[in-house]
Design brief:
single chain; 154 residues; alpha/beta; Alpha-D-Glucose-1,6-Bisphosphate, Chain A, domain 3; 4 helices; 37% helix
């Protein structure tokens, strides 16, 4: 398992539909790793599988910070034994619709797209799916609480 020290988590990164923040200050590597580990636990609970049985599609957009965020998040998944299906290796990029399609195509347990969407270039974030369902956390406090609790008790 990746060693993540306990940290103060910026609660403004949790949005109703995803995680968003300023890439260089709010979405540091340690935060991305923690988010990845928490996502594994979330998938485990929702899919009823052990991490080694999970398959997750991961992609990224064209932003300069996307490779770093994707690497930190993906390393956390792989440290738990999750099988990662990388749809945007190296200099390649993907889109959110491609990630949705890949989840279906590979019958994956979940998917993550590193994307800042329509926000300014210094922003970035994660769109998360459980199964083929885009997980809309209508109450952002649920996701915030999940990551914060995982941070406290991991």
């Amino acid at each position: 398992m990746v060693n993540v020290k306990k940290m103060i988590v910026d609660k403004t990164t949790y949005r109703a539909n995803d995680i968003r923040g300023i890439a260089d200050t709010q979405l540091r590597d340690d935060f991305c790793t923690l988010a990845g580990l928490a996502y594994v636990e979330l998938l485990r609970k929702h899919r009823g599988k052990e991490p080694q049985e999970l398959r997750v599609v991961v992609g990224k957009d064209v932003r300069n910070s996307s490779p770093r965020l994707k690497t930190a998040f993906t390393d956390a998944l792989m440290s738990e034994g999750v099988h990662v299906i990388d749809i945007a290796p190296a200099e390649k990029v993907s889109s959110t619709p491609l990630m949705y399609f890949a989840i279906w195509l590979f019958n994956a347990d979940g998917g993550v797209e590193v994307t800042g969407s329509h926000l300014d270039k210094e922003w970035n974030g994660f769109k998360l799916c459980i199964g083929s369902e885009y997980r809309k956390f209508r109450d952002a406090r649920r996701w915030e609480g999940f990551i914060c609790n995982f941070n406290l008790f991991s």
